[in-house]
Amino acid sequence: MGDYGQFMTPEAVFASLTGLRQYQGDGRRAPHKPLLVLLALGQLNATGSSALEWSTVEARLGALLSEFGTSTTTGSSSAAYPFTRLRSDGMWQLSRDVPNDKVGPLNSAPIEGHFSPEIEAELRRSPATLNAVARSLVESQFPLTIAPDVLSAVGLDPD
Q1: Are 14 and 136 in contact (CB under 8 A)?
Q2: Cβ(55)–Cβ(80) under 8 Å?
Q3: What is the C-alpha separation between 7 and 1, in angstroms, rounded?
Q4: Each residue's pLDDT tens digit, 92-128
Q5: Which regions of the chain are under pLDDT 50?
Q6: DSSP-assigned states of every residue in 35-48
Q7: Measured by CB atoms within 10 angstroms of the end CB, which terminus of the chain is less buried, N or C?
Q8: Contact assessment for residue 83 and residue 106, using Cβ atoms and an 8 Å cutoff
Q9: Is 17 within 8 Å of 31 (Cβ atoms)?
Q10: All residues at 6 or more sequence positions from 108 whose CB lies less than 8 Å from its CB, including other chains
């Protein structure tokens, strides 16, 4: 993604945030990472920062997975997967280093995750990019009948 001084184009940000590597089982992609990205987009839209404390992600992402995920995608460890693994997609950073998928290290001390500085800067500069990413993610991951509900649940305008 480059150093902190580099800028990303809206197209590069869109491609990064919508081109997630996802676990696939039974012919379906797991919604964990897209839901975390949507949650961070909602946070950025509401506060100007994508930073999310693990305790918030654990509760909110867990609820989102229960409501919109598959039947096997609930619990703290399910929220830990995207919170730690999204780093490998090059767009997400944690405030301290922890191993992938482990809840214990996440609970041992405060930790937050956020988009990389260059992605966050572009999303702040371009609300249209933020909205396009959110729309693309929700439409590619969820039935169109619940897409507005998913957007509302993460704090984004469904229209």
Answers
A1: yes
A2: no
A3: 9
A4: 999 999 999 899 999 999 999 999 999 999 999 999 9
A5: 1-4, 73
A6: HHHHHHHHHHHHHS
A7: C
A8: yes
A9: no
A10: none
Residue type (1 letter), 130 = L
Token couple for 62? 């867990």
Q: How many residues does the chain have?
A: 159
d(CA 147, CA 158): 8
Query: Do 33 and 82 form a contact (C-beta atoms < 8 A)?
Result: yes
Quick one: residue 2, left, alpha or beta (phi over 0 = left, psi -120 to 50 = alpha)?
left
Tokens representing residue 6 in the block: 């580099």
Distance in angstroms (rounded) separating the CA atoms of residues 132 and 126: 10
| pLDDT the model gives residue 34 | 93
- What SS3 state is found at 53? strand
The DSSP H or E segment spanning 151 is helix 147-153
Cβ distance 53 to 111 under 8 Å?
Answer: yes
If residue 150 lies in a helix (H) or strand (E), which one and from where to where? helix 147-153
Q: Which phi and psi (to 5°) does residue 7 adopt?
A: -110, 150
Q: How far apart are CA 116 and CA 62, in angstroms?
A: 23
